[in-house]
Amino acid sequence: MTDFTANPFRSPVFLDRHAAGAGDLRDEIVHGLLATPATIAPKHFYDPLGSALFAAICLTDEYYPTRTEAVLLAAHGAAIARAIGPDACLIDLGAGDCAKAAGLFDRLRPARYLALDISVEYLRDSLGALARRYPAIAMAGIGTDFSSQLDLGGQASAERRWFFYPGSSIGNFDPAQSRAFLARLREQTDPQGGLLIGIDLVKPQPVLDAAYNDALGVTAAFNRNVLRHLNRLVGSDFEIGQWDHRAFYDPRHGRIEMHLEAREPVTVRWPGGARSWQAGERIHTENSWKFTLAGFEAILRDAGFRLDQAWRDERDWFALVLARPV
Q: What is the pLDDT of residues 192-237, one digit of tens each?
């Protein structure tokens, strides 16, 4: 275990847990490609280019979640800081460029910051820049797939652990998976800790459809780039130009679905296997569930948390929820 208290004025500790599981990751990807229908887990969007494309999505006119959440964080940052208190250990899940957590630092004044992300190199660069801005905050980064196993690598403090999960990334899990994931967070949350999480709320379908089909085509590029990433991960030979982006809201399930649709008959090969698709067949790449506040409170309760405070924007499109362990 690293002793943060020994010398906090230094470069951040960085652990790469993701590379160690490369074999299991390949098996998981191949299993998804051979499934009916074929699937690719959304965590594979986030290679360095995918992470940069997602940052660009957040700047498009249509994609409201990031802007709306940023307004809520700025407007209610003082209240959030009072609720959490100073000197907490802030654990940022899916940290990316670390900008959202960094926006809280001046008010929250955490003693420690632990950033987790599957995009290892992107996280390493982001965390290094942040450490130079806030040298008094002890920092560590872990490159890891925290969606399947939450391994903090001995880097978090034992007390006052506050998990930060912005962006409504919880919507990538189905309801049962959400409960299981939040229950894993609860297992590692001490009585003085808790959870600050962003959730995207149910809203008119045209708003949702537009958010995932921006006019510039950034989301389409983000979706198709996952094939480029898979080519590197498993040695497949996807041709990106053979696939179209499809995204739409499914009101029956209350979720956005993203797919890649074959433009023509396609056969993709990788070492030890292959799969063919007919024109119009799809690979399911992402779900993004939308919530009501009451429905999400029930999920929290099932996972061992209680909703303490919630802040919503004036259009009731997005919510920041602060929850504490039961």
A: 999 999 999 999 999 999 999 999 999 999 999 999 999 999 999 9
Q: Please say whether the beta carbons of 186 and 303 come within 8 A.
A: yes
pTM, full prediction: 0.91
Tell me the CA distances in angstroms from 21 to 26, 34, 38, 48, one per residue in order: 9, 20, 22, 19
What is the SS3 string spanning 197-223?
A: EEEEECCCHHHHHHHCCCCCCHHHHHH
How many C-beta atoms lie closer than 10 Å to residue 161's C-beta? 23
Summarised one tens digit per residue, pLDDT across range 282-303 is: 999 999 999 999 999 999 999 9
* Dihedral pair phi/psi, residue 83, rounded to 5°: -70, -40
Do both 296 and 280 map to the same domain?
no
| 101: CATH | 3.40.50.150
The whole-angstrom distance between residue 78's C-alpha and the CA centroid of its chain comes to 24
Query: Do residues 116 and 264 both lie within one domain?
Result: no
pLDDT above 90 (res 264): yes
Work out how many domains the chain is built from and give that number.
Answer: 2
Rounded to the nearest 10°, the torsion over CA 175, 179, 185, 189 is 140
